[in-house]
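In the design runs reported in the main text, the only information available to the sequence generator was the tokenized backbone. The following block is the verbatim input for one such run; it is reproduced so that readers can re-run the procedure and compare outputs position by position.
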């Protein structure tokens, strides 16, 4: 008995020593994940999986030691189990940048992370074999027949170097991202198998992480990129897939890669820069075999099998590619996934140049609409689409005009094509406003023809800018009349540039929502300017666009973001800001606003909220009406009493809590008998006006130059009079009025 106890004690000592050598195998990797604060995307899920595997590893050693200690005690011996878990010291991430925040990709840390995982993959299987030998010699029972202690010859290369033959029979769930069905990590599991499975998990991560890091290093020689790019670029395989966007992007990657390969092999089989005969089969992606940031080799090879279509026809693969991108755009319009733009950024930058070019050639309108892509890329894709559409529409209109049918010009097709051509003309004229009189060239960031149309146009590259202002127009906006709104965005650039010439400024006009129109549709709640439903739909789309501006911006600087809403556009801005609290913009500016869907400015979740309102602006004062519109029977609007007004508290109301700046005071009509003047609603961009000057200062953050309307002083608390009254009632005539006063205009205005 004494000899058996001594043998068990020796086995126990060997387990403790083995734990000391290997229990911390994942510590440094966990330390890098925590210290570098990679956030969003798949980084969080990967960190959780890593933490789970680290816990599993250390509990396995504790379990093995506990099993042998139990045998010793059963034979009357005494043994104390030391703590076999390790702790990790987390270095502060404030060393990675200014301001105490880290927002980039540390290549050295990521390289070390991969190296440590690779080392764990190499050493843990051997440690598991040693533990198997110890437990077998100690006659410790296990739930699964334990193989021989000596390493076998059935090496599974997918599990990394050093993996023994019994790992081939490990359940599949050992290789997942930290989930262990049926095995809760408590004592009673097979600790040697758990240790081997942790090594197998580490080995499974290394190839994809290494491939992704190599691509990231090629893209960023400085070794620094955005947190979103790192999260999705390196850890994309762990990112959640809301709305199927990740799967769609992976499908697009596989198709574009395969078609680009075919295009290079058959360069003569293209027409007008378009891919022709598709030599791939659509829908070949194996379910579950793709990751957010790219595709596996198996996916790509699945699309490289031959098949062909007739020359001039549309290949099934190109159709599938367009469908995949359309899926992403559908998810983008909802604005529900705040990480989608970062995912798109990582996806695009991990593509090969050939695949990128094929995507632009095959679906320029879809590529140009993807938030998160570089602004220059979107501009090139959208201009390609604009030119192609103009040529095709003019050709078709000519056919209709010369057709033998007198009614040819009155057909629905003719009217739709004529509208699109007018929209193209308006966009072309708008783009021509850039590159002149000191302005930077205009960039076409999105374009959709037909109906009201949609577009986003920027003066200056928002990816490179120090300051970005995005303007959202209001009621009556249509693409065929967009020139006025784009001109206003140009004036904002001019004014901001005039007082901050050393700054790179981008002024964006964003019109990607169905603005309410003053026509017969006004009686419908979903189309009415008096109801919030249009803003609620458009707010999510604006969220996605702003997400894209954030994630596509160069990582070496932190820009200043301003979002400006005019008229009903301010309602859209208010909805969008609340959809991304503390992550939308640095400041909001509301011009002629009837409301921002909030009762207090602080609900908008930004640092600064500014309001400019002319005293004679009739639209702005709609926010004071104690009514709102709701959806009634048949979808028609119905009025309903609301103490907060139609869209929340009037932003110019002092109780709303916004900063109010001085604008020009245009007189009302008919000798001021009627206090409103509709030109006042559109005069905020008038040349040399106080409002335009103040807008420039606000965009640049030059607050000391802004004339602010002071808030009226509140009533002091009334004190109960003494009994009997011994003094006269104080004169209250000098007390400031609590009633908001009109915005004062400068002298001579």
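Verbatim output:
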């Amino acid at each position: 008995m004494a000899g058996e106890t001594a043998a068990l004690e020796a086995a126990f000592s060997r387990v403790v020593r083995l734990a000391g050598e290997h229990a911390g195998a994942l510590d440094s990797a966990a330390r890098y994940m925590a210290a570098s604060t990679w956030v969003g995307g798949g980084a969080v899920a990967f960190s959780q999986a890593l933490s789970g595997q680290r816990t599993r590893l250390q509990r396995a050693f504790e379990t093995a030691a506990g099993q042998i200690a139990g045998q010793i005690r059963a034979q009357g011996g005494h043994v104390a189990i030391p703590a076999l878990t390790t702790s990790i010291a987390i270095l502060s991430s404030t060393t990675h940048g200014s301001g105490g925040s880290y927002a980039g990709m540390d290549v050295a840390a990521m390289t070390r992370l991969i190296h440590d995982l690779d080392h764990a993959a190499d050493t843990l299987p051997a440690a598991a074999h040693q533990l198997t030998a110890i437990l077998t010699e100690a006659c410790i029972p296990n739930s699964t027949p334990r193989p021989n202690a000596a390493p076998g010859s059935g090496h599974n290369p997918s599990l990394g170097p050093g993996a023994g033959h019994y790992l081939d029979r490990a359940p599949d769930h050992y290789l997942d991202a930290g989930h262990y069905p049926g095995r809760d990590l408590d004592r009673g599991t097979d600790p040697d198998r758990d240790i081997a499975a942790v090594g197998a998990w580490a080995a499974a991560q290394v190839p994809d992480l290494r491939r992704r890091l190599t691509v990231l290093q090629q893209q960023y020689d400085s070794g620094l990129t955005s947190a979103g790019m790192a999260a999705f670029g390196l850890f994309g395989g762990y990112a959640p897939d809301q709305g199927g966007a990740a799967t769609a992007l992976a499908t697009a990657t596989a198709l574009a890669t395969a078609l680009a390969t075919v295009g290079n092999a058959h360069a003569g089989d293209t027409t007008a820069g378009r891919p022709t005969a598709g030599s791939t089969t659509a829908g070949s992606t194996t379910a579950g075999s793709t990751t957010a940031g790219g595709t596996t080799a198996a996916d790509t090879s699945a699309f490289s099998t031959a098949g062909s279509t007739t020359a001039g026809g549309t290949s099934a693969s190109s159709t599938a590619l367009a469908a995949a991108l359309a899926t992403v755009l559908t998810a983008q319009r909802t604005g529900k996934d705040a990480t989608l733009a970062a995912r798109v950024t990582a996806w695009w930058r991990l593509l090969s140049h050939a695949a990128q070019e094929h995507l632009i050639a095959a679906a320029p309108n879809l590529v140009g609409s993807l938030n998160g892509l570089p602004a220059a890329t979107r501009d090139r894709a959208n201009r390609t689409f604009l030119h192609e559409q103009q040529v095709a529409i003019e050709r078709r209109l000519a056919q209709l005009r010369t057709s033998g049918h007198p009614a040819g010009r009155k057909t629905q097709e003719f009217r739709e094509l004529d509208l699109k051509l007018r929209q193209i003309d308006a966009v072309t004229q708008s783009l021509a406003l850039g590159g002149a009189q000191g302005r930077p060239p205009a960039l076409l960031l999105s374009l959709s023809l037909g109906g009201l149309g949609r577009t986003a146009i920027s003066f200056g590259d928002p990816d490179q800018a120090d300051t970005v202002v995005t303007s959202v127009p209001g009621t009556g906006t249509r693409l065929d009349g967009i020139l006025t709104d784009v001109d206003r965005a140009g004036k904002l650039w001019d004014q901001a540039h005039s007082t901050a010439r050393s700054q790179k400024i981008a002024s964006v006009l964003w019109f990607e929502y169905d603005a309410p129109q003053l026509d017969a549709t006004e009686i419908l709640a979903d189309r009415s300017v008096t109801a919030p439903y249009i803003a609620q739909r458009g707010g999510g789309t604006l969220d996605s666009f702003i997400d894209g501006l954030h994630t596509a911006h160069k990582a070496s600087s932190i820009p200043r973001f301003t979002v400006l809403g005019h008229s009903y556009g301010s309602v859209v801005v208010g909805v969008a800001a609340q959809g991304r609290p503390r992550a939308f913009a640095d400041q909001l500016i509301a011009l002629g606003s009837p409301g921002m869907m909030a009762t207090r400015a602080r609900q908008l979740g930004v640092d600064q909220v500014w309001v400019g309102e002319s005293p004679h602006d009739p639209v702005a004062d709609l926010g004071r009406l104690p009514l709102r519109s709701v959806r009634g029977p048949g979808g028609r609007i119905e009025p309903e009493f609301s103490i907060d007004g139609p869209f929340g508290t009037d932003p110019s109301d002092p109780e709303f809590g916004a900063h109010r700046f001085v604008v020009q005071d245009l007189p009302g009509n008919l000798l001021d008998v009627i206090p409103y003047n509709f030109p006042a609603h559109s005069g905020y961009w008038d040349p040399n006006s106080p409002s335009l000057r103040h807008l420039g200062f606000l965009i640049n953050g030059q607050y000391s130059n802004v004339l602010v309307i002071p808030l009226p002083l509140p009533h002091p608390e009334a004190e109960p009079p003494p009994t009997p009254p011994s003094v006269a009632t104080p004169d209250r005539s000098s007390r400031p009025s609590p009633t908001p006063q009109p915005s004062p205009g400068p002298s001579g205005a």
